[in-house]
Design goal:
The structure is a single chain. By secondary structure, the protein is of the alpha+beta class. It is built from 4 helices and 18 strands. 22% of the residues lie in helices and 39% in strands. Strand 9, helix 2 and strand 10 form a beta-alpha-beta unit. The radius of gyration is 21 Å and the shape is globular.
Length: 258
């Protein structure tokens, strides 16, 4: 009888350890900082909470959240945003299994890439209603204000949909009107006010760190970080000139099917 009791207890312990291990493997990110009403599904989120792959995170009015993923990637979620960690897989010793697929359903975010993107650019996808965004080692922001607006701080991003692929370099802005319209470069002066406000808010988040950046270090300035009307006009002209150059943005059109 004692042996049976011991085996039963051991069984429950093993089940508990297996469950804990499964949770650890599935976990994707820590909530580095937050303010306001932030939820994972229906549950309220607090600083230092672990967020698992598959979770949908929403931020309320005036809220903001900074997620640090297990590979060092940082995602800043602006207010009134819905973001889904669709499929995140990272094991330091198994780069072949890397995967970072996210959906931005509404609102705005900032992404500072981590090990998954640096080890394999093809492993990262950020999907918005208008396009799929891939990155080439970068710091960028996206705001869905119909259209989707992109602001690239460092590196480059590609925006792909049924119309083709457009690539945007550092300091440039992009606009994607719909899933059937090719993304196009725009000057800073053409960035909608709602997108500009979101970009400014996310650029000023304190303590956003990634890769070799030290805690508390100033975050890299992003295109459109703080734009008054006069500054926007000046930056817009400079960006427009840069975009017109060969190194600015490139496009690849998909053939049209009759």
């Amino acid at each position: 009888m004692k042996q049976k009791g011991f085996l039963r207890t051991l069984g429950w312990v093993l089940v508990g350890l297996a469950a804990a291990f499964a949770t650890a493997v599935q976990a994707a990110a820590n909530v580095q900082s937050m303010r306001g009403d932030v939820r994972a599904g229906a549950a309220k989120v607090n600083t230092n909470d672990r967020i698992t792959s598959g979770a949908a995170i929403t931020t309320g009015a005036g809220a903001q959240a900074v997620l640090r993923f297990d590979d060092g990637q940082v995602v800043v979620l602006n207010e009134n945003t819905t973001f889904r960690i669709t499929d995140f897989q990272f094991q330091k010793e198994k780069p072949a299994g890397d995967r970072a697929i996210f959906d931005l359903l509404r609102g705005a975010l900032r992404v500072i890439s981590g090990a998954v993107a640096s080890r394999s650019q093809a492993s990262f996808q950020l999907r918005v209603p208008q396009a799929t965004i891939d990155i080439r080692g970068t710091d960028f922001m996206v705001a869905i204000v119909n259209p989707a607006i992109l602001s690239i701080g460092t590196g480059a991003v590609g925006a792909s949909n049924a119309a083709g692929t457009a690539v945007f370099g550092a300091g440039s802005f992009g606009s994607v009107a719909s899933s059937s319209a090719l993304a196009v470069a725009i000057p800073a002066s053409a960035v909608p006010p709602a997108a500009s406000a979101a970009f400014s808010s996310m650029s000023s988040v304190a303590g956003v760190v990634a890769g070799g950046m030290a805690p508390g270090a100033a975050t890299p300035p992003l295109a459109g970080a703080t734009m008054g009307p006069a500054a926007a006009a000046g930056v817009g002209a400079a960006v427009a000139i840069g975009i017109a150059a060969a190194s600015g943005s490139t496009t690849t059109h998909h053939p049209t099917t009759p």
